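Subject: Sanity check before I submit

Could someone independently write out the structure tokens for this chain? I want to compare against mine line by line before I put it in a report. The sequence has 474 residues.
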Amino acid sequence: MRPARLSATALALTLASIVMPAAALAQFGPPPDRGNGFERRPGPDRGPGFDRGPGFDRGSSIDRGRERGRPPGQDGGAILGMSRERLARIAPVMRGEVDRGMFPGAVTLIARGGRIVHFEAHGFRDAAKTVPMTRDTLFMLASMTKPIVSTAAVMLIEQGRMKLSDPITTWLPELRDMKVEVRRTGADGQTTTEDVALDRPITVQDLLRHTSGFSYAGSVRSTRLKDLYDRQNIEAREANISGDEMLRRLGQIPLVNQPGTAFEYSISVDVLGLLLERVSGKRLDILVKETILDPLGMQDSGWYVAQGQRTRLAETLDQDPQKAVMWPAYRIFENPAENSQYFKGGAGMVSTAEDYFKFAQMILNGGEFQGQRLLSRKWVEFMLSNHLVGMGGTTAASTGPGYGFGLGFAVRLQDGFAVAPGSTGDAMWAGAWGTSFTIDPREQIVGILMAQGPSNRVHTRMLFKNLIYGAVVR
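---
Independent answer below. Compare away.
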């Protein structure tokens, strides 16, 4: 959908939107100066970490007074086509998840037509359940880092700094001699492996859509490759490793597929982050800060949590089986630049629900937010198109059935054949710690779930999607 800048007349209509059909409202973008209900906050350069005081509470831009006196379930019970009564279901459901031990707490945010209609904190921030959750709580994004870094890559492509079809070895010569492991099962049932040459080079597009042939140690089907990923510390799970050393070691490990043949969820965006550093000549955290975080006012997002902000970080329940495995690998209290650790473009960031909303709304707006244009409308459309046509593999482990993958985002292929409602063309992704988002251009909806419950993450992301769409009445 092509966003439009508001005229004075359109602004007046937006202010009256509480009685407008959602389909009519969808033609209007967010007010250029009001920024979807968020004030612009000038401030000093705060660097890639967090060094300011506690967060803020500015409200959620919900007008609660316009429709009083009208019976629930009629137009008076809806805001921008979403039922207030049904939005009110979210809080008790989230409290129930807390009581069941799914996570200590969560923050949920829903916006429609660029305006926040729901923004609430639930449960607790800490594992001991003693500190109430607040809306400015920091969450480890894990793989929700990927869409941000992928967007930075597309911005460089827009600027003519590189192309989707470029071989990544143009900037990463360490990967020039890679092979592909081929497994064959003979008539006797015995399996043999052989490392063969690449049919074609890995391209920038392959990194963005996870068709590079790389994998993750935790999901690779070859025990040999899993052992190599682990022993070579490719994912920096056990100790810090520089980007140059990681690439040198990765170049000695065979791929799991020929490039461009199958979706394989992987370290592709970590490699992409290192490629962006060489293309731009800047550290990844600085590049992303300058091109995305600062223009969008995402002041609570970065690759580590500074000393004074650590109490703002949401915790995972101690009894969550994944906590002991995952926590040592993230080292979120260390600045990678000071510890010879590469910035993980695929997993390293922390953020808040409000900050991530700004990023997601920019994508929904076709590349613009609060008067700041990061991407062209056509490039956003291209990013949210399916780039896996004719290839193998599936995103179902993260998205459920019915999704393909674009450039940094999973994209819904049809209205049906899924496990949660949505629209053809909606985009989503999620993080291993329990965060998730959905961007629905047809319905002009952004939904953000921030939680830290890794063992239950698929359940909670689908539960939240059900609640979002269960509130849509117009």
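---
OP: Matches mine. For the report I'm noting this point. The radius of gyration is 22 Å.
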